[in-house]
Structures are given as structure tokens and as C-alpha cells.
Amino acid sequence: MSLGERYGEHHRRRRAEGDFVFVPERIPFFQAAIGRGRRVLDLGCRSGALTRHLLEGNEVVGLDVDAAALAKAAALGIQTVVADVEEPLPFPDASFDAVVAGELLEHLRFPDALVAEVRRVLRPGGVFAGSVPNAFRLQSRLRFLRGRPPEDDPTHLRLFSPAALRALLVGFEDVRLAFLGGRYRRLHPRLLARDLAFRAVRP
Fold this sequence. Notes:
single chain; 24% strand; alpha/beta; 8 helices
């Protein structure tokens, strides 16, 4: 079974969740990071649940390994490309103003390789924005203390702390992190937020 078929099966099993943006605060965060009048690449866009919010005023390309999900994204007016993000991206150097990777890096064996590719396809001054689960939040720590994995998604291969995320983005400038989502986030963002989002600029 190919990687695309595996993710297609995984998405079918979780279809009700798969078309839903878990943390809606991602939408304004990414919109503000990207702006308008930009050529945008959304990596791991799936069916376009998040990507469609980036369309207004921008030219958006959505890339995913799941061809069935991409067919739904194409119906929304998103340019789609079927590709594996763990292979070199099928785009020329400096061909995008912004790249988005929402809830993607945690799924990768070698996220540093993808970040290097993102840097390659971004124009100087281009923005890289994304998010990962806040894997070290209190709920995950309690799961670990009970002898359970911190995350229950079998496709999550990496756990990111703020320090690990900054280290991954070392080739970028003006790195900004934000904690998003979670009913009680304001009490202690680092421990209670669901997502860790980032924005960084290619030198």
C-alpha cells in the first residue's frame, strides 16, 4: 500500500474529523501571517478545510499525498498537486511568497528535510506559517503518567516543544510562536493550549 493509500484510508476512518479544522484560531493566525496578493503553497491541505480560508486575494496551491481528499479541495477552486512532502517539492526555487504547514510536521520522519525544501521554494522575505499539536500540554502529560502515549493519533511521529520548533526553524528570521485553542488556554497557554503555531521569514 502506498503512502497516499495509507493516508487515504486513515482519513476515511476519521472523515468526520478530517474535514474539520480542530482549532479555528488557526484561520486568522495564518491569514494575518500571509496577507493578500501572495502566491501561497499549503502543504498537507487534504480536502481544503483550512486552505479555502486562504483563497481570498491570493493564488493558492494545495499539496497532499491523498488524491481523494485533493479532489474535494479542487472543487473549492484550489489548485492541487498530488505529492509526498517527504520527497523534494515539485516546484522551482523561490516560487512562492508564503508556505503553510498546518498540523503536518508531526507526521514526518524527517521534518528538517521538508523545512529545507520550504526555504528553497520561498522567495526572500517569504513567510513560513504552520502549527503542530502542543504535545507537552497538561492533558498529554497526564496521559503519559497513566502509561498511555501523549498523543492518540498513530500517524504522529514527532512531539514538538517550543524549543524544538525554534531549533527546526533555525534557518529563518523573525520566528514568532503562539499558543492557540483550548477552553482554558488563557490561564496557562503553554500547559493548556491545544496548538503551537509559528510564523517565520525566509532571509
